[in-house]
Amino acid sequence: MALGRSRNLVYTVDRVAQAADILLNRWPTMTGRKHVAARKACLGVLEGLKETRDARKAFVEAAKEADILVERDPFS
Fold it and tell me: Would you say which domain of life the source belongs to (predicted)?
């Protein structure tokens, strides 16, 4: 998945540790309820308490909430 605000900076996120770093240190918008849930989910995976799929879903929802999710073209 990819994130970007105003499409001027895009992160391609493919690891939970990278998602956690973005959520904790590089999130480009104000935080919301789904952002907090995604942080907890990613940290839970890194601690061995949650499944990767749970963190991915939470991260996508947080990015949607912040309106920064960049949908990839499946044909590119």
Answer: Bacteria
Q: Which two tokens stand for residue 21?
A: 């770093």
Within 10 Å of residue 56's Cβ, how many Cβ atoms? 18
Count other Cβ atoms within 10 Å, centred on residue 15: 10
Query: Which of 1, 2, 5 minimizes the C-alpha distance to 67?
Result: 5
Structure tokens at 74: 């499946």
Percent of the chain with pLDDT over 90: 62
Which position has the token pair 């799929």?
Answer: 53
CA–CA dist 23, 58 (Å, integer): 11
Locate the domains of the chain by residue range. 2-70
